[in-house]
Amino acid sequence: MRRPQTRIQAKNSETILDAALDVFSAAGFRGATLDQIADVAGLSKPNLLYYFPSKEAVHTALLSQLLDTWLDPLRAMDPNGDPLTQIMGYVRAKLNFSRDFPRQSRLFANEILQGAPHMRPAIEGDLKTLVIEKTAVLQTWMDQGKIARLPPVHLLFSIWSLTQHYADFDCQIRALLGPDHDAFPVAGDYLETLFRKLLQVSDT
């Protein structure tokens, strides 16, 4: 059994992962190097290799942390709650993730754009299982007439793309709105209005 890390070792591991997040989110897996990560972390490459034996090991550790955090808001969708409240809460949570964790969002986007070579088992496993579970919840709400009838999985796709845009395309947003413009307050209100109208049950 591996011994628990000391406080210094745990701190160095987190320093390496934080530096790797900067490098991977900017350069992608292929463009990143251990030398770049070590330089950003302020550690020597041999010191980095003491904690993580390869670039793949660092990347895998980051992605494992990311996927768990990324899935939490969807896990929190309560099938016994008010449908619109639950869905709007999910939209807001996903938008807040883009605001608070833009590097993580770009890391995930880069991985998907490369064909998910390091995350495919997790996507086809935990993520797919959760999506099946929550689309069944959405379908039940639709069948009960509580929200408009839409393809449930495509509703989730729309939420993901519209909220993650604000992290993955941050450079474009700042170029258009100004470097100091905070797009998130208006974005939150806009997306809530958009999805409420989309999900409203027609009287006809």
TrEMBL record:
<dbReference type="GO" id="GO:0003700">
    <property type="term" value="F:DNA-binding transcription factor activity"/>
</dbReference>
<feature type="domain" description="HTH tetR-type">
    <location>
        <begin position="10"/>
        <end position="70"/>
    </location>
</feature>
<dbReference type="InterPro" id="IPR013573">
    <property type="entry name" value="Tscrpt_reg_YcdC_C"/>
</dbReference>
<dbReference type="GO" id="GO:0045892">
    <property type="term" value="P:negative regulation of DNA-templated transcription"/>
</dbReference>
<protein>
    <submittedName>
        <fullName>Transcriptional regulator, TetR family</fullName>
    </submittedName>
</protein>
<dbReference type="InterPro" id="IPR050109">
    <property type="entry name" value="HTH-type_TetR-like_transc_reg"/>
</dbReference>
<dbReference type="GO" id="GO:0000976">
    <property type="term" value="F:transcription cis-regulatory region binding"/>
</dbReference>
<dbReference type="InterPro" id="IPR009057">
    <property type="entry name" value="Homeodomain-like_sf"/>
</dbReference>
<dbReference type="Pfam" id="PF08362">
    <property type="entry name" value="TetR_C_3"/>
</dbReference>
<keyword id="KW-0238">DNA-binding</keyword>
<dbReference type="InterPro" id="IPR001647">
    <property type="entry name" value="HTH_TetR"/>
</dbReference>
<feature type="DNA-binding region" description="H-T-H motif">
    <location>
        <begin position="33"/>
        <end position="52"/>
    </location>
</feature>
<dbReference type="Pfam" id="PF00440">
    <property type="entry name" value="TetR_N"/>
</dbReference>
<dbReference type="InterPro" id="IPR036271">
    <property type="entry name" value="Tet_transcr_reg_TetR-rel_C_sf"/>
</dbReference>
